[in-house]
Design goal:
The protein has 262 residues and is mainly α. The chain contains 9 helices and no strands. It is globular and about 55 Å long.
Length: 262
């Protein structure tokens, strides 16, 4: 019987799919680390109080990239080039989600609206990351090889999501609520589509490596399309609502330590 647990167990058990999965994840985390680092350096004077939290966010993402590379080293496998169709962060940028790299490469301070856009986009993508890591934590939190990494990254992603909620609610209270909701809705619609396409591409690569039968590959593709249909109908709402988190100031302290192997 196919399930998320059995699917990820297949990926973990095979060296080739394991290194593809870790390479894709490491690339995305490293990109997020760079982006947050640049945003922290380019904050306008009126929002410079956010710099430590944005920098902490970037440091966490960098740490996650090192963790995935560490997992590959422990297995004795090398990273692989990330297929373009599986590059979630690159595809998001091409769709206009997040701040353009040309903007981040420059030295001109960001505007307040650009920072609000960054936070709204982060709220959507961090929801995805938190959901994914919550699923992995349920199934693999005690796994001898990946359990520690899963627990650490999952806790960090929950903190990132809490930070986005808190800062966006504060900004909404300052009169930016309409802009925030517009950006959240635009981003959620685009992200849902990109996540579907990336999921299909990743499963195609993994299925080819593992030699899945056509019926098995078709079942998984159907499941991905069904999940997308649910998100387009109702699931997107979880990405655009704002609720004050139980944990306040989630990124107010130093980054949590990483495993020794990272």
């Amino acid at each position: 019987m196919l399930s998320a647990r059995s699917l990820f167990q297949e990926i973990i058990d095979n060296d080739e799919t394991y290194r593809l999965f870790c390479s894709v994840a490491a690339s995305g985390e490293a990109q997020g680390g760079w982006e947050n680092g640049r945003i922290a350096a380019l904050l306008p004077a009126s929002m410079v109080h956010l710099a430590p939290k944005v920098a902490r966010h970037g440091a966490d993402e960098d740490k996650h990239g090192r963790i995935f590379h560490g997992l590959m080293r422990r297995r004795g496998v090398e990273p692989v080039d990330v297929p373009p169709e599986t590059d979630y962060t690159m595809l998001l940028e091409r769709a206009g989600i997040g701040l353009p790299h040309a903007k981040l490469d420059a030295d001109e301070p960001l505007s307040e609206e650009e920072v609000i856009t960054y936070l709204a986009h982060s709220r959507v993508t961090e929801q995805r990351a938190s959901d994914q890591m919550d699923m992995l934590r349920r199934y693999f939190a005690t796994h001898p090889e990946v359990g520690n990494a899963v627990r650490i990254i999952s806790a960090d992603e929950d903190n990132h999501l809490a930070y986005c909620h808190e800062e966006l609610l504060r900004l909404a209270g300052e009169g930016h609520g309409r802009v925030i909701q517009r950006v959240l809705h635009e981003c959620a619609r685009a992200e849902n589509l990109i996540y579907r396409d990336v999921s299909l591409a990743v499963m195609e690569h993994i299925g080819r490596i593992l030699g899945w039968s056509r019926p098995k590959a078709a079942v998984l593709a159907t499941a991905i399309h069904a999940a997308y249909a649910w998100e387009r109908a109702v699931g997107w709402r979880r990405m655009v609502t704002l609720t004050m988190p139980h944990r306040r100031d989630a990124l107010g302290g130093p980054a949590t330590p990483e495993p020794e192997f990272a």
